[in-house]
From TrEMBL, chain A:
The complex is composed of two ATP-binding proteins (UgpC), two transmembrane proteins (UgpA and UgpE) and a solute-binding protein (UgpB). Residues 78-269 form the ABC transmembrane type-1 domain. It comes from Phyllobacterium bourgognense. The keyword Transmembrane helix applies. One of its GO terms (cellular component) is plasma membrane. Pfam families: BPD_transp_1. This is sn-glycerol-3-phosphate transport system permease protein UgpE. The chain crosses the membrane at residues 7-29, 82-106, 113-131, 143-163, 200-218, 248-269. Belongs to the binding-protein-dependent transport system permease family. Part of the ABC transporter complex UgpBAEC involved in sn-glycerol-3-phosphate (G3P) import. Probably responsible for the translocation of the substrate across the membrane.
TrEMBL record, chain B:
InterPro entries: AAA+_ATPase, ABC_transporter-like_ATP-bd, ABC_transporter-like_CS, ABC_transpr_MalK-like, ABC_transpr_MalK/UgpC-like, Mo/tungstate-bd_C_term_dom, NA-bd_OB-fold, P-loop_NTPase. GO terms for biological process: carbohydrate transport; glycerol-3-phosphate transmembrane transport; glycerophosphodiester transmembrane transport. Belongs to the ABC transporter superfamily. One of its GO terms (molecular function) is ATP hydrolysis activity. SMART domains: AAA (SM00382). This is Carbohydrate ABC transporter ATP-binding protein (CUT1 family). It comes from the Bacteria. Residues 4-235 form the ABC transporter domain. The keyword Hydrolase does not apply. One of its GO terms (cellular component) is ATP-binding cassette (ABC) transporter complex, substrate-binding subunit-containing. It is a peripheral membrane protein.
UniProtKB/TrEMBL annotation, chain C:
The complex is composed of two ATP-binding proteins (UgpC), two transmembrane proteins (UgpA and UgpE) and a solute-binding protein (UgpB). GO terms for biological process: transmembrane transport. Part of the ABC transporter complex UgpBAEC involved in sn-glycerol-3-phosphate (G3P) import. Probably responsible for the translocation of the substrate across the membrane. The keyword Calcium does not apply. It is found in: Cell inner membrane; Cell membrane. This is sn-glycerol-3-phosphate transport system permease protein UgpA. Belongs to the binding-protein-dependent transport system permease family. InterPro entries: MetI-like, MetI-like_sf, UgpAE/MalFG_permease. Keywords: Cell inner membrane, Cell membrane, Membrane, Transmembrane, Transmembrane helix, Transport. Coiled coil: none annotated.
């Protein structure tokens, strides 16, 4: 580095720490609130330190027996969300890696047409065709099913494009070596392509898991029954500022429980996630 | 072991781009055939057609007297060493070498024996548990060779295998490949653009240009009797000097109008090129004419001493030439020299570039 | 090896099989509904759903002439521009600082990336907890200074709140890209500028910032798309489009007209307009990708 200016670096540290405080504060605040009693929450300002009701509130939310959102427990909502997030992540990775494989490693009539058909879906999110898609789900009887939550959100090209881009960097010689070594398309896929794609798969998994976990509009429309709802939707239904009966301390707990799993996934798989994110979007 | 025979092999891309134009080559069992030529001359395409990695538009490729045109690369019983080695990055050296055998369903103990034998030959035994990333360029090259050897195929195919190594290592590996090929006696086809590699490795040398064969023969025969100006300037470094000459009623004229003695040369009316290797010139002290040779005047442009020899760059009859002189040269820039080309070292090419 | 001479497997049937799952899902859940949206956008259904008739571009004409629609277009533009600018400016500042420090880079990154994992709707709720007038601690602090803070009644304040929440969530994403962008700038260029006598600030604005342009531009598009679509949850959870229609964005209006007010033709026409906007943004993005390939 050119400048070895300790003052400049100190300022940089200070700004970063302020940045982290801004970024972390809403979450920290919610956590603090989740350890207070309802009365304390309703009487601002809230203390800046966690209160003493951590176990009480968390066990009430998780094992309270009485479901708080239309008779459904938080565990059920978390489970639904997990199924949805995993379904989207795994399903999309599977169909994408196969179609990218076809597009990159084969030449066949209609290849470019198919590529564009998939490609166009890249940036048209479900929101722009929401009503007709909803109607189709009703016609197919997929309302309040996991299939209905998962399948339509798999119809996008991001993962296919990432795999395609990665596959194009695999030297042609490697394919030729495998062919000379007697590996057909399936063996090549299984023995060479799949192991080489490991990091990409991991990165995509994180991105898609979070994508699935944080969905809002689609589960809002697709689920009528409370026991099929996701945690984010459930949380929304718990909140009512007009309603004096809202149990805010439990809302806060649910909030923390809803954001914890994806945060854990991001932080633990940070290395792949960061690489994958920056590479996907290029 | 097997011979390889190419008959009228053609490759056309799309409907009109002819990359390989009807090539005939016969390679005897156990011989090492080198295909050499500038990039884009079709040599790699030809190799890949032998390998089964490119389809053959026309003609036949025979391995061991059997037409293999319609067989896939794995069924042709060939092994190939690639320019960038093409090692499987996620597999250990051992698995890289064993992969092809496993795909053929060879029993485990037999695979193990073959891999270890090959590792022994290539001095890779210590590296079997490493991944390609952890190897040096030369070591990767050996692994690529090992992967070919373990298969004991009918034919080895080499696609510029040394082009990614530094000069010193390249020389070393060249000798190793030659010895290994001799020792195993496997028929080989070797593609390179490096004429030195071609000269030193080949039993049969095939010089290619623009999709056609310019000349086939033993390397030294080609060096001594190049069939065309293309071969003459491609084989040998520095390349053969080529000086244009025309005949008129009273003798021979060079490009800049200098007249020279005919010395019994018969030059066609369309003109010709006189060719001579840089080492085949004799620098004459005075202005005397040498009996049985062609005497020319050379103006020195510069001298490059490289130790064992010196290169004298100059102009003869308006054309730049190089002369290779043993040891130090006594010439200086702007000197006028009289050089003599012995008659038996003189090459003559017609206006079409073909040898006369 | 260039893509035109890409090494491939000779196989006639297999590639179609490999493509089938994705094509099926894309056809059923993308092309079919998208064409339905286009189809419905030229139809008008009577209030009882008994009959429909072809009305050409009437729906579009009405939608584009509707002051409510123009209002939500304006809301969307203000919301998107504000969100993108704030999220990008803060992220760039933090990324430049993170590029400067030597110790603790990894820790800073870890601590900065987690809002990425927070659902937009929850991000909205977190900010609402802080700022809602009845129990929010920060709202309490605002009011105790005498400021009349009530985002549930004041449209501008509601906008400030959802922009904050939307920008807050997007900082991590932008941060990661700016860090990557900064790392890809050759150090020798910065050194050359330093030798040429450019001070630190000058180096940033004359060398670093222009070289970051591809990243910045890319993020601008991504952030705009994010503000258009992904923030539906924030608005739905925090303001419900209100107060009045002060925070009703285009996507929110599509939802509202289609699912709450059940005006299908208008909603479909709005969907088609949205599609055109996104396709336009995508096209811009691809021009940029192409340019980058040329320079790169």
């Amino acid at each position: 580095m050119i400048q070895n200016n300790p003052v400049g670096r100190l300022i940089a540290h200070v700004i970063l720490i302020i940045g982290i405080l801004i970024v972390a504060f809403p979450i920290y605040y919610t956590f603090v609130a989740s350890t207070q009693t309802l009365q304390e929450i309703l009487r601002p300002p809230l203390s800046l330190l966690p209160g003493g009701h951590f176990w009480e509130n968390y066990s009430a939310a998780l094992f309270g027996g009485v479901g708080r959102i239309g008779g459904v427990g938080v565990d059920r909502l978390l489970f639904n969300t997990l199924v949805m997030a995993l379904g989207i992540a795994i399903g999309k990775i599977c169909i994408s890696i196969l179609s990218a494989y076809a597009i990159v490693f084969f030449r066949f009539p209609g290849r470019m047409i198919f590529f564009w058909l998939i490609f166009i879906t890249l940036m048209l999110p479900v929101e722009v065709r929401i009503l007709p898609t909803y109607k189709i789900m009703v016609d197919l009887g997929l309302i309040d099913t996991y299939t209905g939550l998962i399948l339509p959100l798999m119809a996008s090209a991001t993962a296919t494009l990432l795999f395609r881009q990665f596959f194009m960097t695999i030297p042609g010689e490697l394919v030729e070596a495998a062919r000379v070594d007697g590996a057909g398309p399936w063996r090549f896929f299984k023995d060479i392509l799949l192991p080489l794609s490991k990091t990409n798969i991991a990165a995509l998994f994180v991105i898609l898991f979070i994508y699935g976990w944080t969905q809002y509009l689609w589960p809002l429309l697709m689920t009528n029954r409370n026991d099929m709802s996701t945690i984010v939707i459930g949380l929304r239904k718990m909140i009512s500022f007009a309603d004096a009966d809202t149990e805010w301390h439990l809302v806060m707990v649910t909030c923390i429980l809803a954001i914890l799993p994806p945060i854990v996934v991001v932080v633990l798989m940070q290395r792949w996630f960061v690489r994958g994110l920056v590479e996907t979007e290029k | 072991m097997a011979n390889v025979e190419l008959t009228n092999v053609r490759k056309v891309y799309g409907s009109s781009v002819e990359a390989v134009k009807g090539i005939n080559i016969a390679i005897e069992d156990g011989a090492l055939c080198v295909l050499v030529g500038p990039s884009g001359c079709g040599k790699s395409t030809l190799l890949r057609m032998i390998a089964g990695l490119e389809s053959i538009t026309d003609g036949t490729v025979k391995i061991d007297n059997k037409v293999v045109n319609e067989l896939g690369p794995a069924e042709r019983d060939i092994a190939m060493v690639f320019q960038n080695y093409a090692l499987y990055p996620h597999m250990k050296v051992y698995d890289n070498m064993a992969y092809g055998l496993r795909n053929r369903g060879m029993p485990k103990d037999q695979i193990d024996k073959r891999v270890k034998d090959a590792a022994q030959i290539l001095e890779l035994t210590q590296l079997l548990e490493r991944r390609p990333k952890e190897l040096s360029g030369g070591q990767r090259q050996r692994v690529a060779m090992g992967r070919a050897i373990v298969r004991s195929p009918k034919v080895f195919l080499f696609d510029e295998p040394l082009s990614n190594l530094d000069a010193k290592l390249r020389g070393q590996m060249r000798v190793e490949i030659k010895n290994l090929q001799r020792q195993l006696g496997v028929t080989s086809v070797y593609v390179t653009h490096d004429q030195l590699e071609a000269m030193t490795l080949a039993d049969i040398l095939v010089v290619m240009n623009a999709g056609s064969v310019e000349q086939i023969g033993a390397p030294l025969d080609i060096y001594e009797k190049p069939a065309s100006t293309f071969v003459a300037s491609f084989i040998g470094a520095p390349p053969m000097n080529l000086v244009p000459v025309k005949a008129d009623h009273s003798g021979l004229v060079l490009k800049d109008g200098t007249r020279i003695g005919a010395e019994g040369l018969s030059i066609p009316a369309t003109g010709a090129l006189i060719g001579f290797r840089p080492e085949d010139l004799e620098v004459s002290a005075g202005t005397d004419t040498h009996i049985g040779g062609l005497a020319l005047d050379l103006k020195v442009l510069g001298v490059e001493p490289v130790g064992a020899e010196s290169y004298v760059y100059g102009i003869i009859g308006g054309e730049r030439v190089v002369v290779r002189v043993p040891g130090r040269s006594t010439s200086n820039t702007d000197d006028q020299l009289r050089v003599i080309i012995p008659k038996q070292k003189l090459h003559l090419f017609g206006a079409d570039g073909k040898r006369i | 090896m260039a893509s035109s001479t890409r090494v491939t497997f000779p196989n006639k049937f297999l590639p179609y099989l490999l493509l089938a799952p994705q094509l099926a899902i894309t056809a059923i859940f993308f092309y079919w509904p998208a064409s339905q949206a286009i189809y419905q956008s030229v139809l008008r259904e009577d209030p009882f759903g008994l009959s429909t008739q072809f009305v050409g571009l009437d729906n579009f004409r009405r939608v584009l002439g509707d002051p409510n629609y123009l209002n939500s277009l304006q809301v969307t533009v203000i919301f998107s521009v504000a969100t993108a600018l704030i999220a990008m400016a803060l992220a760039l500042l933090l990324a430049v600082m993170a590029d400067k420090v030597i110790r603790g880079k990894g820790i800073y990154r870890t601590l900065l990336i987690w809002p990425y994992a927070v659902a937009p709707a929850i991000a909205g709720m977190l900010w609402l907890f802080l700022f809602n007038p009845s129990m929010g601690t920060l709202a309490y602090l605002f009011r105790s200074t005498g400021y009349n803070w009530d985002p549930l009644l004041n449209g501008d304040q509601a906008m400030v709140l959802i922009v904050s929440a939307a920008a807050w969530k997007q900082i991590s994403y932008n941060f990661l890209f700016f860090v990557a962008g900064l790392q890809s700038i050759p150090k020798s260029l910065i050194e050359a500028a330093a030798i040429d006598g450019a001070g630190e600030t000058k180096r940033f604005w004359t060398i670093v910032f222009p070289l970051l342009a591809p990243t910045t531009f890319f993020l601008l598009v991504v952030n705009t798309v994010y503000a258009f679509f992904d923030t539906f949850g924030i608005i739905h959870a925090v303001t419900g489009g209100g107060p009045g229609k002060a925070t009703e964005t285009l996507v929110y209006k599509v939802y509202n007209d289609g699912f709450v007010n059940l005006i299908l033709g208008d909603s479909a026409a709005q969907s088609v307009i949205l599609m055109i906007i996104v396709i336009g943004l995508t096209a811009i993005q691809f021009r940029y990708v192409e340019r980058k390939v040329h320079y790169g």
